[in-house]
Amino acid sequence: MSVFSARTGLAAALAVAALASGGCTQLRSHQGYVVDTDLVNSVQPGVDNRQSVLATLGKPTLAGQFDQGDWYYLARDSRNLAFRNPRPNAQITLQISFDQKGTVTAIRRGGLDQVASIKPYGKKTPTLGRERGFFQDLFGNIGTVGAAGAGGGAGNGSNTGGGGRDRP
């Protein structure tokens, strides 16, 4: 009986170890356009137009709003461990420019060098001026409403409240 319980204990420990190590595996993800290099290389400047690019590559990921309305095809492969933020492993940016008639004028390719790493300063936005605490923000305006020179009160004495008439 003790051999059976030792084997089940060992099997349970191995199962727990397998589940625990599965949480540390590297996750891979793909976002955006699925790039087919043969199709991308078949688009030629001066030959293709918007309709032929749409038929060959499909709908673009983004379309530019200014100038000629360039089309962008974006694809990104990233990896991360467990609950960490994903980090880009590879990126392809394909920009297709058109002229006024809709003919392809240029095809530009970009890669991982265009990924910007933005790190926030901290949990609060730095501002110029004095540091104020919670209670100063909460109670800081008490007494300032209607004060002389604040522009909101009748502290200058020019209006006596009689409907515009001056009282003696």
From TrEMBL:
<dbReference type="InterPro" id="IPR037873">
    <property type="entry name" value="BamE-like"/>
</dbReference>
<feature type="region of interest" description="Disordered">
    <location>
        <begin position="149"/>
        <end position="168"/>
    </location>
</feature>
<keyword id="KW-0472">Membrane</keyword>
<dbReference type="InterPro" id="IPR007450">
    <property type="entry name" value="BamE_dom"/>
</dbReference>
<keyword id="KW-0732">Signal</keyword>
<feature type="domain" description="Outer membrane protein assembly factor BamE">
    <location>
        <begin position="32"/>
        <end position="107"/>
    </location>
</feature>
<feature type="signal peptide">
    <location>
        <begin position="1"/>
        <end position="20"/>
    </location>
</feature>
<keyword id="KW-0998">Cell outer membrane</keyword>
<dbReference type="InterPro" id="IPR026592">
    <property type="entry name" value="BamE"/>
</dbReference>
<protein>
    <submittedName>
        <fullName>Outer membrane protein assembly factor BamE</fullName>
    </submittedName>
</protein>
<dbReference type="Pfam" id="PF04355">
    <property type="entry name" value="BamE"/>
</dbReference>
